[in-house]
Each structure stands twice: as C-alpha cells, then as structure tokens.
Specification:
The protein is an alpha+beta fold. It has two helices and six strands; from the N terminus they run E-H-H-E-E-E-E-E. The chain has a single domain, classed as Thiol Ester Dehydrase, Chain A. GO terms for molecular function: fatty acyl-CoA hydrolase activity.
Length: about 130
Amino acid sequence: MEHEGLLVAEREIEVNNYDIDAMGIVSNIVYIRWFEDLRTIFINEYMTFSEMMKEHISPILMKTEIEYKVPITIHDKPVGRCWFVKAGRMKWVFKFEITSGDKVHCIGQQTGGFLDLERQRITKMP
C-alpha cells in the first residue's frame, strides 16, 4: 500500500481477550484505541502530556474516519503504522493502517488540533 506523509510510529499490537467480541473478532472500537496509541507514541517524542498540561494545552480530535477491511482474530499478529500527513497552523492530520502479513485489516485518518485549556479555544500547534 502506498502512503503519503512521514511514517512516525510503527509497532506490533497485542490482541487481548478483552479486545474480542462475541463473534471472535476484534471489536470495532478497539481499532480507534490502537489509533490513539500510535498517535500518542508520536506526540510523546516531541512533547509529553505532562509538558502540555504545564503549557495549558491538550491535543483534541476533530474527526476520525476508519474503514474496516478484514477482521482481526486473537490469532493474528497485527502491526500498526501511523503517518503524519499534514500540519497547518491550527490542525493536523494523521493516517493509520493496521496489517498482519499481507492483509490490511483497516485504514483510517484523524484530524485534530490543540485546545487552550484556559480559554477553551483551538490554539496554534506548539
């Protein structure tokens, strides 16, 4: 699969028994959590959440899009990847992919920004 942007996070993902639904596949909401984990890996390289709190800012999501392709089971060994695609003055965009072997399980995109916690308004990126 061809990607735009800079690969900023890649990690093996452990599928836990609590990630599986009654059908024996990973629940849809778990993929969103994995996106969050991947994005957090990138953010922590540049500014920890503790540092952000001292600056009175926090990253926020404005939009999450996800396309489910092939279900993941407890037996799969998925790998998550995150690309930093775009950054404007007030918004950023990340793209995601969860795969195992040659199977693409899902792709997605998140758009977000930073919130000034004191003013409760979107603020420029740090």
